[in-house]
Amino acid sequence: MPQIKSAQKRVVQTAKRTRLNRAHKDRLKRATRLFRSSLAAKDPSILPDAVSAAHKAFDKAGVKGIIHKNAVNRRKSRTAIRANKTAAAVAAAAATAETAAAPALS
After folding, report:
1. What is the pTM of this model?
2. N or C: which end of the chain has fewer CB within 10 A?
């Protein structure tokens, strides 16, 4: 433990900042995991909520300085691209299943 009062204060501040940064990073990781699990589930009903939750977590982390603003924009872009690809794949699979189930008219 430091002997100088300002150094003691820095130790306390650093511990508090570290605790808060870890909490923010955990929230960010949780939102990212939720998004990835919704992608894996390929359920179009939960995908928009997961995307918006992830984007909200990215924005908050960027404002608080947990991640850089360019990293925020990059992550948001990549999640949107993945969500759109998954939604398109699910829609295409549903369309082909529908077409295969319909009787041929000839």
Report:
1. 0.80
2. C
